[in-house]
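Homework-ish question, so no full write-ups if that breaks the rules, but can someone show me the predicted structure for this set?
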Amino acid sequence: MSAQTIIVFNNLFAILTLVALAGAIGLTVYRVVRGPEAAGLLGGRAIWLAFAVALVSTIGSLMYSELFHYVPCRLCWFQRIAMYPLAVILLVGAIRREAVVRFYGIPLALIGLAISIYHNLVQFFPSLEGGSCDPAVPCSARSIEMFGFMDLPFMAGVGFILITILLAIYTKATE
Amino acid sequence: MTATKKPKSGTTQARGNSTLWWIIGGVVGLGLIVWLAMSIAGEVPVDESIGYGDPTVEGDPLPVYAAGQQDVSVGLTAPTVEGADWNDNPVSIEPDGTPKIVIFLAHWCPHCQAEVPVIQDWINDGNVPDTVELVSVVTGTDRLRPNWPPQDWLEEEGWTPPVIMDDEITTVAVNYGMGATPMFVVLDGNNTNLGRITGELSTEALDQLVQVAEASIEG
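A: Not a homework solution, just the prediction itself:
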């Protein structure tokens, strides 16, 4: 895989992250302004969108490790553990139109979000994870840096936030 | 009696149309994002060799030094390295009679980024005696990681110690048993390893490294 191709995908995932972040903010504002009826905006599509976010995040994560040969660090693995099952759980929940999927999806997404917040903190304050970098897979070093601030844990964190919000809205839509 | 197809209700049809528009919107939006990603990336030709050197290493490698552990290779002779900086000025780590402190750095390592200005200020304050030589090795270079190329970073920091650019397979780092960055190796004038340490060091700790190096002259 050429460096140029990896740069294109870095840009692609970075822009998708910005779009997801805008979506998460927009949905939150809409929910605050419109109240419970905001759930009607997406209806049953909310869970399909949540599945799409989990699927793109999973595919992106696998692309970075398997195609671009970025070795995932310890904290990246913990986030993967939270994200990968979401892609399966949300697909099954969407097909079966089961509102109960929120009881499995939201906790997983929140656990993943907590880890990615900590991972972002480690990147801003490297001393949280010791005073040196493992040359192979340092958690404190950024693998990529898009728009001057965005790395893989930031992308994952936005994914977890959007999935949480979509599942919360789906919850309202199904009640 | 013939079976008749139940006509779609208005609500069902409207929902179907709405979903179709969502799908069309999603595909068009994704297409725009892909186009934007390719446009931003551009087709700027980059010299892939930037940031790498072509050093030669002779001698037995030191065992890997794990951060925070005792260095079991104290007393062993470190390999001789012949390399060059990014302007092709020759730089070496050899048994020339001068004790050395060799500093291994990686451009993407946040601890190295924090340590470089600390070391440079310490040098500027005149804490390195003429009897001890500082040599740095830039290793682990990766074009796709932040703060690349390393020479721009070090020039911005006003880095004055001579620099050996390691190669793509980190030959110098591997032969010096680098287990983490930054790593400091203190050598006597015969290239004997007097100790290795990793991580961000305070100026007091840097003073101690100089004392160890100087003690080898007196010893």
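Now go work out the reasoning yourself. Hint: Chain A has five helices and no strands.
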